[in-house]
Task: structure prediction
Amino acid sequence: MLKLQEAADSCDIISMLHLIRTTLTRDLGGMGMLRLYKHSWFGTKTLISDYIETAVATIEKFQKVTEGPNFSTAESRHYQTSVEDALKYFGRSALTLSGGANLGMKHIGVVKALWEAELLPDIVSGASAGSIVAAICCTATDQEMVDVLKRFPTSDLAVFDAPGIEGLYWFKERIHHAWETRAFYAIKNLERVMKSWVRDLTFREAHNKTGRILNICISSFESSEPRLLNHVTAPDVYIWSAVCASCSVPFVFQPATIYEKDPKTGQSKIWMLHSQQWVDGSLDHDIPLRKLSEMFNVNFFIVSQVNPHVRLFLEAEEQFKGVQPTTDVPGRGTIRTGMMLFNEEMVYRAQMMTDWGVPHVVTRGVSVFNQQYTGDINILPEIEPMDFMFMMANPTPEFMLRSTELGERATWPKMCRIKNSVAIEKALIRAINEFRDRVNFGPEAAKARQPVDGSNRGRSRTAGRRRPSFLRRRSLSSETSDNLGPGIWRGSGPPSPSPSRGMKRNSSMGSIMESLWLGLTPLTMRPNILTPQAGVSNELTTLTPAASDSNNLTVMNDLRAPTFSFAVDGESEMEYEDAIISAYSKGTPVQGDLAPSEPPSSPIQTLKNLFGGPH
Result:
């Protein structure tokens, strides 16, 4: 704690970043121990509070000193990555809401208490009735949450029966529906209620809208393979469809089919076609601890548990009456020990029946006793005796208001412990969001998004593009000096680049014309110095090429101009730089005004002069 304070006071960026990445932990010195919060819920954990406040202040100071025009986008991205690594080491927290039919409506009080204290985790999981509360809260933005929490207890929540069905007609309707479908209630009422709250939002759309991670547990009716639906595993699945599947308690609702939105057409279609139907998620994993840990690095679980069959087997928390205990944690009593033995015996017998080949449907319900239903902090709202009588009835506004109050009361004693466990995590998440905004919306990012004049965004059409080989200037000789050979000197103009040694000579007429057009530099004749054949092999020089020899080209100008002959050996595999050009003049040497006065100004003019075309 002192090192964090010193680094923050000195504004040492390197020290603060190092301490944030390496020293922050959730249970430092056992500060999450339950007994610390039994003598007094608030106000006596001074050292723990000082550590939490110092860590949060250091993170906020690090954000402040790294802000400004002196820090580039690359530095902000580095700081963002470093804080993300610190969050990976620290871990994430999650709120998990259990099932329990109408008793699950008490979860709304838990969510409300955490939201008002700004301690609601971004990762929320729900199973069965808990999925209803989780879906409604995770599809509302921060601005909408206040209205949702206020309107939810008094809204239409007729999930079991249609509104207005009472008395004898209700009994007749239930018997008729059970006879036809082998389920007591119709799932269409729940579907209607969920569509009125979440509309046709998918998991991906809800995550993009709110930033929260919604997880809904479902189970397969035929196997014990649990599934966790979220924006990663089922991004296009409708949330209302997943909630209906998670609430499909066997023989209460029919097994449900899950629907998703086609990403191309936007139409509804069956998710995982030809797959099994889905039932209540509480059957296999009411609290998906392992899945959340693997997918989102969750290492701290806040569990709101209202399942009646689970509450019977949960161990009661140690109770104190104003005096801090000094003895060890008391052991289980006789009744609690007997219930734990009964639980283990049922799991053992079910495993034996499975080994004997008994159908899985017979032992399907035993998995309810073979789960972990508690987390790091357990919130247990009070269940009144009259609540059991209306577990399968539409909740009334009075019942909802009472359930919300009981959920809040069960959460308030845990508030200090939750705050000390998640305050640093919340500060790290705020820092990550701040650095992400700097990277994505900073001055450099805004400048990069500005439109540039021109269709090519300011770059030349040929920028970074290599010219084709047939457009590059070439010389048929490897000589770099002005003396190209006997009787030939380079005239004015830029030097021609040497050809590639990997390029083989093409002996066709078109290749020679191409070289003549693009590769030749204007040449100036020096008469009366060398004979036409001086220094040239007789085998490579042809004075009068044959008419049928397509590998020899003679270009004749008018009578006043000299005659040039280009002879190329078409049989050998010589490269361009090994070819020999021989220029000679028929008749008398070129002298006086017959000699060219200046080189042609362009390749077209050169060809016109050579072929004797009009000037």
About this structure: Confidence is low (pLDDT under 50) at residues 454-458, 475-597. The first strand starts at residue 92 and ends at 97. The two ends are 93 Å apart (CA to CA). The CA atoms of residues 554 and 565 lie 5 Å apart.
